[in-house]
């Protein structure tokens, strides 16, 4: 299930298994995934674009709309 949808959380897996009638804890899920060679990580937080940066991007894009395409 995790290999098909990498964004599946441990909580999602626990809930799915409980609905199927199997009682499993989050640490059990983590240990099993680690034994299977799967690693967990958190998505990097990136700052949102400020209005000034949005305007600068739009200006750049408009200025370069007619540039020749490179291969």
Properties at a glance:
elongated; mainly alpha; single chain; 71 residues
Radius of gyration over all CA atoms, rounded: 22 Å
Q: Characterize the biggest β-sheet.
A: none
How many β-strand stretches? 0
Helix percent reads 40-55%
Q: Tell me the number of helical segments per DSSP (H or I, 4 or more residues long).
A: 3
Mean pLDDT score? 88
Helix-strand string: HHH
Strand residue content: under 5%
N-C termini distance: 40 Å
Low-confidence stretches: none
Shape: elongated
Based on helices, strands and strand pairing, what is the structural class? mainly alpha
Provide structural commentary.
The chain has 71 residues and is mostly helical. Helix content is 46%, strand content 0%. It is built from three helices and no strands. The longest helix is centred in the last third of the chain and has 13 residues, at 51-63.
Per-chain topology:
Elements: H1 10-19, H2 26-35, H3 51-63
GO molecular function, one term: DNA binding
Pfam families: HTH_Tnp_Tc3_2
Protein name: Transposase Tc1-like domain-containing protein
Brief synopsis:
With about 70 residues, the chain is mainly alpha-helical. About 45% of the residues lie in helices and about 0% in strands. The chain is built from 3 helices and no strands.
């Amino acid at each position: 299930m995790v290999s098909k949808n990498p964004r599946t959380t441990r909580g999602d897996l626990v809930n799915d298994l409980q609905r199927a009638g199997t009682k499993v804890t989050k640490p059990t899920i983590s240990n099993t995934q680690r034994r299977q060679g799967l690693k967990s990580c958190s998505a990097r937080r990136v700052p949102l674009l400020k209005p000034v940066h949005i305007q600068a991007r739009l200006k750049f894009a408009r200025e370069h709309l007619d540039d020749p395409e490179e291969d």
